[in-house]
Automatic annotation (TrEMBL):
Keywords: Dioxygenase, Iron, Metal-binding, Oxidoreductase. Its cofactor is L-ascorbate; Fe(2+). The keyword Oxidoreductase applies. This is Gamma-butyrobetaine dioxygenase. GO terms for molecular function: 2-oxoglutarate-dependent dioxygenase activity; metal ion binding. GO terms for biological process: carnitine biosynthetic process. SUPFAM superfamilies: Clavaminate synthase-like. Residues 111-348 form the TauD/TfdA-like domain.
Length: 372
């Protein structure tokens, strides 16, 4: 059934207002012209732009606009004619408005089955969509082998290589080069904020776990940031503006990067969180800025360590967590080995690979539905 839609041009033709699907949106004439989806504007094979957008006339206007069925047709003052499918202008957004934020009351963990995601595109798409929506997925049935996760990474990948290699051990060792390799508990944190770019997704696979303790803790950083904004707007503003430094150094590696603890996108939405007490090194800002920052950080820390926002779970052999490292704070409780070995394996996959695979699978699913 056609989508009810109507359009209106402003007096000078420089702006078009489109109302459809209960939403009203304004579009600049120049934006519509440079985004025209026709073969005179875009290469049919690559989809890349053929015209030089910066050379379009700044006073370009829309001379005629009409909607027929699900198509918007336009004529411009430079003589160009084109047509947009309404879906292209009001299609499903990926801006984060449909994310499911959660706290300790989360009643059911997002789950996936390793074999199903490995063998079936629909199951893999469901895993990736759930991961985007919730920020993590618990995957069961992973082979209890050192590189058991690799086959699923290869369905998405590539695996992100770091100075530690690809898939690396997370277990207690005698001479630990990182606190993750000890038996101590770890505060909620994001991984590797000292890298550029920061790894997008953490894959944490359990081969064996401790007899006591060693529980994983998860906190939705976007929920914590939203709570901070509601409770203390000045602290929220401070943590979006003051950049902190992060640093990791060992005998063969020196990594440094910076960024605010709460990062916003161009539309002012929460886009990324950082927290890593072990590697943060705040610059020597002026005293007033530092005092404001320390107060704000304390409030944020109180939220991300609040049991009301924390989900606890214990990974069993063959379980794996995939976590959004731009959104989730993860940690663990201290553990005792009692003669056993707590052995997890960890790898990273970047955001562009994960997003690309999800969007390609989503497009294929839509095309398949359209054909049935």
């Amino acid at each position: 059934m056609p989508t009810p839609a109507d359009i209106a041009l402003n007096a000078d033709g420089r702006r078009l207002t489109l109302r459809a699907r209960g939403v009203e949106r304004d579009f600049a004439a120049l934006w519509l012209r440079e985004r025209a989806p026709d073969t005179k504007t875009l290469d049919a094979l690559t989809g890349q732009r053929l015209i030089e957008a910066a050379e379009l006339p700044l006073d370009l206007t829309i001379e005629h606009a009409a909607i027929e069925q699900e198509t918007l047709t336009l004529s411009f003052s430079d003589g160009h004619r084109t047509a947009f499918a309404l879906d292209a202008l009001f299609g499903r957004a990926d801006a984060g408005d449909d994310l499911s934020l959660w706290d300790a009351t989360l009643s059911e963990l997002p789950r996936a089955d390793f074999s199903a995601a490995l063998d079936d595109d629909d199951a893999l798409l469901a895993l990736l969509e759930s991961l985007r929506r919730h920020g993590f997925v618990k995957v069961s049935g992973v082979p209890i082998e050192e590189d058991g996760m690799q086959a699923l990474i290869d369905r998405i990948g590539p695996l992100r290589m770091t100075n530690w290699g690809g898939i690396a051990d997370v277990k207690s060792v005698a001479h630990a080069y990182d606190l993750t390799m000890t038996q101590r508990g770890l505060e909620p944190h994001t991984d590797n904020p000292y890298r550029d770019p920061i790894p997008g997704y953490i894959w944490l696979h359990c081969l064996s776990n401790a007899a006591e303790g060693g529980d994983s803790t998860l906190v939705d950083g976007f929920m914590a940031a939203r709570r901070l904004k509601a409770e203390n707007p000045d602290a929220f503003d401070c943590l979006t503006r003051v950049a902190s430094q992060f640093r990791y150094v060992d005998d063969s590696t020196h990594l440094e990067s910076e960024g605010p603890l709460i990062e916003l996108d161009s539309a002012g939405r929460i886009n990324r969180v950082r927290y890593n007490n072990r590697t943060e090194r705040i610059d020597a800002y002026d005293t007033d800025t530092l005092e404001r920052y320390y107060r704000a950080r304390r409030h944020f820390y109180a939220l991300i360590t609040d049991e009301a926002l924390t989900v606890h779970l214990k990974l069993e052999p063959g379980d794996m967590l995939i976590m959004d490292n731009y959104r989730l704070f993860h940690g663990r409780t201290a553990f005792a080995l009692d003669g056993g070995v707590r052995h997890l394996r960890q790898g990273y996959v970047d955001r562009d690979s994960m997003a690309s695979r999800r969007l390609v699978l989503r497009q294929r699913a839509s095309q398949s539905e359209a054909c049935t």
